Amino acid sequence: MVYKDCNIGSAKPCKNILEKHHHHLVDIVTPDKVFTVADFYKHSIKIIEEIHNKNKLPVFVGGSMMYFKSLYTGINDLPERDQKFRDSMIKLKFDSEDFFLHKKLNQIDPDYANKINKNDEVRIIRALEVYKKTGKKMSEIFSDDTKNNLSDKFNVVQYCISVDRDILHTRIEARLKKIIEQGLVDEAKNILNKYNIDLYHPLRKSINYKQAFDYIEKKYDHDTFFKKALYATRQLAKRQTTWIRSWDKFKEIELNKFSMLENDIKKLITAL
């Protein structure tokens, strides 16, 4: 939702909802820019403090479990992206033997290289980039536990909505059909025409947009586009469930039974 013009594919709330209920981190960057986990963390910390200063309660809803995890447990201090360096690494990749970048990382940081897939170019290039700019290995950085932990500073209450798998899959399919009817493909075409989006931009790998872009580029027909988007969304839901189950401090809420959540929020607001 952070990207402008990415409305249908991200299931962004409609204008009326956004006007009625104040949202943050919506439409704050254009799709030709990259919004990172570090950006999310920095923006979120600032928002939390501003809302607390107004004696109100910030509520985070979504979304990407990796982003929430970074906010909850804190992140390491890493340098910003260096696009020129990234471009040079991508050129090296195409001009060299298979898995050249992974082999390059293995020479620098074998511990981290052994933990990631040889095809995971995003993490490989990021590790090489960080080493070039700081001289530090990713394995050493990730072993550093001096992160700014949000849970040490604030009272964080986490909730998870429990949904039966069959119901979840039915809802996912209905949602996908709806956003396609609303114009997902036309929106994707507009984004490609309006912005210069790098081939390695996260948007090109995001669910719905990735499949729509591939369909527009005639990599497969409409039926395959739908099936691939449906499968990808179901896999995401499965991964999100796995993420949540790995956490030990959340309250589970059954679908359509939100009384506990409402009561808890009322108590938290009263305590402000």
Protein described:
The protein is mainly alpha-helical and 272 residues long. It has a domain at 83-142: Orthogonal Bundle (Histone, subunit A), CATH 1.10.20.140. It is built from 14 helices and two strands. It has a two-stranded parallel sheet with strand order 1-2. Helix 11 (184-194) packs across helix 12 (209-216). The chain starts with 14 loop residues before the first helix and ends with a helix. The model has no long low-confidence stretch (mean pLDDT 88).
Tell me the series of helices and strands, N- to C-terminal.
HHHHHHHHHEHHHHEH
Task: Count up the helices.
Answer: 14
Shape: globular
- The total beta strand count reads 2
Q: Which structural category fits the helices and strands?
A: mainly alpha
Beta fraction of the residues? under 5%
Outline the biggest β-sheet.
2 strands, parallel
Helix fraction by DSSP (H/I, runs of at least 4): 55-70%
CATH topology term of the domain at 83-142: Histone, subunit A
Q: Class of the domain at 83-142, according to the CATH hierarchy? A: Mainly Alpha
Cα Rg: 21 Å
Q: What is the level-2 CATH architecture name of the domain at 83-142?
A: Orthogonal Bundle
- The protein's oligomeric status is single chain
Low-pLDDT regions: none
Q: Please give the order of strands in the largest beta sheet.
A: 1-2
Q: State the distance separating the first and last CA atoms.
A: 29 Å
**Mean pLDDT reading:** 88
